[in-house]
Amino acid sequence: MHMADALISPLVGGAMVAATTGATAYSIKKVQNDMDEKKIPLMGVMGAFIFAVQMINFSIPGTGSSGHLGGGLLLAIMLGPYGGFLTMASILLIQALLFGDGGLLAYGCNVFNLGFYTCFIAYPLIYKAFVKKRVSPGTIMAGSLVSSIVGLQFGALSVVFQTFLSGKTELPIGTFIMFMQPIHLAIGIIEGVVTAAVVTFIWNSRPEILDKAASGEKLGEVPIKRTLIGLGAAVLIVGGILSWFASANPDGLEWSMLKTFGKTEIETNSDIHKIMSQVQSKTAQLPDYGFKSDDSVNTDKNENESSQASEAWPAVNTGTSFSGIIGGAVTLGVVVLAGGIISIIKRRKLNYKSRI
């Protein structure tokens, strides 16, 4: 559900970036309350894990479409809503800059559609309500399933309204909704089941992690070494190998656009869109999660290889594996760096207050 810049007007894109900046600043302020030395690496590894699983598109039977896990709900369950939102914002920024996945102008839209609704609506208002009184595999499954569906429905509806407000007449709101909501209902059900499986595994092994995240407390003496190692190994396996098994079908957004007006992309010639495209072509060193080529000969060669790879399944590709592992490592580094900076700022504030 990563939106491209062509789906968004500069006004809508700018407004959503401003809203995302505000939500990010507020989350940074709130996350300082439960930030400790153990929370930072957990945020980094969870970010790398969600980056990797987002590379795996699964087919939606009988539709010709595909979907992938958003991961916002899982991040909120493991890290709390504010930590989850900040981690998701970091993942989407890396995907846009390094892999050209999601537009730069549309960055704020993507953060809201994939991170805001899941972390700040689906998690606190729905998921916690299910598991509040009695934590069990049943309540985790029910909470994950309903929350994933609701979060994704909000995100899909938000995409429709963002294109409507951007004046994209190619995507009439009524028709677009008729395709966007049902296909993301199917994707939400699968995401809910997978989220429940991961959360149940964590709950069986380290229930304290979920308890601390839910109550907004520091991890303190909770041992998380085995959890970090397990998630780190999963990143290598999912990003390096399982990413070959991703479905080549268009994702839910592309499929809905195809059904609505016959194409998976919209063309635009505005100056701002051109500038954003030029900037992204410079920063995206692993476009579409593969190796970049500068000359036309290699471009044709790579396009042929990519075409052959997309027709084969699994699509064994060293560029995909490299992207999965490097992307996970960069996400880990960026999130840990951001967490470290937040922690330093917090300590300086405490030191300043202690001196006055």
Short description:
Helix content is 71%, strand content 2%. With 356 residues, the chain is mainly alpha-helical.
Word description of this protein:
With 356 residues, this protein is mostly helical. The longest helix has 38 residues, at 318-355. Helices cover 71% and strands 2% of the residues. It is built from 13 helices and 2 strands. Strands 1-2 form a two-stranded antiparallel ribbon. It is globular and about 60 Å long. A hairpin with a 4-residue loop joins strand 1 (58-60) and strand 2. The model has no long low-confidence stretch (mean pLDDT 90). The N and C termini lie far apart (49 Å).
Count of individual beta strands: 2
Kindly report the oligomeric state of this protein.
single chain
Strand sequence of the main sheet, in spatial order?
1-2
Return the string of H and E elements. Answer: HHEEHHHHHHHHHHH
**Overall average pLDDT:** 90
Largest sheet: 2 strands, antiparallel
Distance between the termini: 49 Å
**What sort of overall outline do the alpha carbons produce when their principal axes are compared?**
globular
Question: Which bin fits the share of residues in helices?
Answer: over 70%
Structural class by sheet pairing and helices: mainly alpha
Low-confidence stretches: none
Number of helical segments with 4 or more residues: 13
Radius of gyration: 20 Å
Residues in β-strands, percent: under 5%
